[in-house]
Write a structure and sequence with these properties.
about 240 residues, mainly beta, 8-stranded antiparallel β-sheet, 7-stranded antiparallel β-sheet, globular, disordered N terminus
Length: about 240
């Protein structure tokens, strides 16, 4: 199939970055990626960034999921009502948007910046959509200061499905999926507003510091879609083929 492009090529003068590839996650094929870090790292500060174009609505669909045990899972998912839901374990905290995400023709850039060392509770989890911080939530409960989270432990990471019962596969295209270990970054680390159109667009992330368990999926190798372009351990694909690039 034709590679998905987030935005048309931008001029060099604007500092633009044309993204050549995405990965199609077909829920009907139970498509997902997974890996288990070799060791624990920073459990208090990290950033997740991805561009996503939805192709299935009205169902629970996981973007990212970590499950260390039977007590629960930390995950980012769209609910059956098409809102974005973040659940954090082992402390049972949640952040649920009022905003719905139902435009299947659009690319959404989603950034979660988490830093439990912050003194102000609302600064410990920040959600940005297309470069703008989301502030309207139907539910918002924040970690205690300096809380250790289940993320960045030596436990399985899944992208594209719910790990605890191997369900809730996502139907979407994902592009430029980045996990930063040890830093809570602003969306300007991953994108910028176009000078002429005002549209939020991607920019090159290869110069970022990814940290011990960080990774960068640019989906440029059709035969190895789980390749970590930051040089870390690759993710293993399941239900994905070269035609999903």
């Amino acid at each position: 199939m034709t590679a998905q492009t987030i935005l048309p090529a931008n001029s060099a003068a604007s500092g633009g970055f044309d993204v050549a590839n995405s990965c199609r996650f077909d829920s009907g094929s139970s498509a997902y990626m997974h890996k288990t870090p070799d060791s624990a790292s920073n459990r208090r500060t990290f950033t997740i960034s991805t561009w996503i174009k939805r192709s299935k609505l009205g169902a629970s669909q996981f973007v990212y999921n970590v499950r260390p045990d039977s007590n629960g899972a930390t995950g980012i998912f769209f609910t059956s009502g098409d809102v974005l839901f973040l659940t954090i374990e082992p402390i049972s905290k949640t952040l649920v948007t009022n905003r719905v995400f139902r435009d299947i023709s659009a690319w959404y850039h989603i950034v979660y910046a988490i830093d439990t060392t912050q003194g102000t509770a609302a600064n410990r989890i920040k959600l940005y959509v297309n470069g703008v911080q989301e502030t309207s939530f139907s539910a918002a409960s924040y970690p205690d200061q300096n809380a250790d989270l289940d993320v960045n432990t030596a436990n399985p990471i899944n992208i594209g499905r719910r790990l605890e019962n191997s369900s809730d596969f996502i139907g979407a295209y994902l592009s430029e999926f980045v996990f930063i270990d040890g830093l809570a970054l602003a969306p300007t680390s991953f994108g910028e507003f176009d000078e002429d159109s005002g549209i939020w667009k991607p920019k090159r992330v290869s110069g970022l510091t990814f940290g011990t368990n960080g990774f960068y999926l640019n989906f440029q190798a059709s035969g190895n879609l789980g390749n970590d372009a930051s040089g870390g351990t690759d993710l293993t694909e399941s239900g994905l083929a070269a035609t999903d690039q």
